[in-house]
Write a structure and sequence with these properties.
Elements: H1 3-24, H2 27-45, H3 47-60, E1 64-68, H4 71-82, E2 87-90, H5 94-98, H6 101-107, E3 111-114, H7 117-124, H8 142-153, H9 161-176, E4 181-184, E5 188-190, E6 195-200, H10 204-209, E7 213-219, E8 223-224, H11 227-242, E9 249-253, E10 258-259, E11 267-268, E12 275-281, H12 285-290, H13 303-307, H14 309-314, E13 319-320, E14 323-324, H15 325-335, H16 338-345, H17 354-358, H18 365-378, H19 384-396
Parallel strand pairs: 1-12, 2-3, 2-4, 4-7, 5-8, 7-12
Antiparallel strand pairs: 5-6, 6-9, 10-11, 13-14
Helix pairs in contact: 1-11, 2-11, 15-16, 15-18
Bound molecules: iron/sulfur cluster.
Iron/sulfur cluster (SF4) binds near residues 298, 299, 301, 360 and 363.
Length: about 400
């Protein structure tokens, strides 16, 4: 990330830290933290059972469920549904970013319309990289954004947030009206209710999920027992990610659109999606669970990167795809391999532990990184500089 972008991102993070400072130690937030920690721990420890109940219930509610063991399986399943479309609409999704869904579809002739404002701006830019899970354009200032948008639309767009919003929104709405397939992620899947829970402030997920076919791509780790549990997670994530106590929108999707308003005869295809397909992605999560599963407790609030001194110095180069910072580095070990974990910044971390202190569910990312470093060195994957220092210590008893 460029120095100027890092400065903008640090300013954005400072504003966020200030905005939520009064609420993090509120008694209700502290209670919610304990509750969510328990919910996430139960989910990860009982995932097989929750999946079993959840899949049956999702299907009973009229949704199609596809289990994708790898990212390749998920990409193939999605492509099979969208192959005849020229464009699909999409909302923000870390899981879609994990499997590089947009790149894959674009390379196969299907244009992807990002509908989140920040994501759309990032999509127009040269790097197409997001700097925060819920605020993807945190590293771009209004002047830079106006240049990116002016280039895209081939007209002068003033460096004013409202002017930028208006032109991007109207273009998105125009294109969205021609899309038949919408792709979203999900914050949680409520197993006992057979429901998908999504959260957003812009209202875009509501629009995307109302297209003829709604594809949900979600990691298997997102199963919880009930809608009530999912709401608790969403509330905590919102507090930590934005400083608000509730998001503008929380959607509960429990099947395709239907009505029984005429003589109780059940008719499908009213206003919403005719078809809802849920792709449950494993992609290394089962492996992560076999090794304790701690990194899967994450609720995606982005707090750890806001406090991380390395992320604040180098930005999105520290982390793995949409999973930013140390937690992303740890996750990459399970999604890919030790080499990818090394490349994501395994040895960049200072092990200061600020991420652990800030994490609402208490993921000890610094300790996980230390453990992975040991494994990495034992597999002969380490920094050349470190071996020089080790050599000096062996030879002279000092690293200097
Ligand atoms: S690891 Fe913790 S702090 Fe970081 S995004 Fe996940 S829940 Fe939030």
């Amino acid at each position: 990330m460029k120095k100027s972008e890092i400065e903008v991102m640090n300013r954005s993070f400072g504003i966020l830290t200030e905005r939520r400072s009064h609420i993090l130690n509120d008694e209700r937030t502290l209670e919610l933290k304990d509750k969510v920690k328990e919910i996430r721990q139960y989910s990860i420890s009982n995932l097989d059972e929750l999946m079993d109940i959840g899949i049956k219930k999702l299907q009973k509610n009229g949704m199609e469920v596809i289990l994708a063991e790898t990212s390749k399986n998920a990409l193939e399943a999605i492509y099979d549904i969208v192959k005849d479309e020229s464009m699909v609409a999409k909302s923000k999704s870390n899981t879609a970013g994990e499997i590089r869904l947009s790149e894959f579809l674009e390379n196969n002739g299907v244009e992807v319309l990002e509908t989140d404002l920040g994501d759309r701006i990032v999509q127009f830019g040269p790097e197409n990289r997001s700097s925060h899970p819920t605020a993807p354009a945190s590293h771009l200032n209004v002047k830079k954004i106006s240049e990116i948008v002016s280039d895209e639309f081939n007209q002068d767009v003033k460096p004013e947030p409202r002017a930028i919003l208006n032109i991007v929104k109207s273009d998105i709405l125009d294109k969205l009206s021609k899309c038949k397939v919408g792709i979203t992620g999900a914050n949680s899947v409520a197993a006992e209710d057979g429901s998908i829970i999504t959260v957003h402030n812009e209202g875009n997920i509501s629009l995307v999920s109302m297209l003829d076919t709604h594809i949900v791509i979600v990691g298997i780790d997102k199963f919880v027992k009930t809608i009530e549990e999912a709401v608790s997670i969403v509330k905590l994530e919102t507090i930590y990610a934005t400083g608000q106590t509730t998001p503008a929108y929380m959607n509960v999707i429990s099947g395709p659109s239907q009505t029984a308003d005429i003589e109780k005869v059940l008719l499908k295809d009213m206003y919403g999606a005719k078809r809802v397909v849920v792709i449950l992605l494993d992609n290394g999560r089962s492996r992560a669970i076999d090794e304790g599963g701690e990194c899967l407790l994450c609720i995606g609030c982005g707090s750890c990167i806001v406090s991380c001194p390395i992320y604040n110095a180098v930005g999105y180069d520290f982390g793995y795809r949409r999973y930013l910072g140390g937690r992303g580095v740890v996750f990459s070990r399970f999604v890919e391999d030790q080499k990818s974990c090394f490349d994501s910044g395994l040895f960049t971390c200072t092990l200061c532990g600020l991420c652990t202190l800030e994490c609402p569910v208490g993921i000890k990312t610094n300790q996980l990184i230390e453990k992975l470093r040991k494994e990495s060195v034992e597999s002969d994957i380490f920094c050349e500089e470190h071996s020089k220092i080790a050599h000096k210590i062996q030879k002279k008893g000092s690293p200097f």
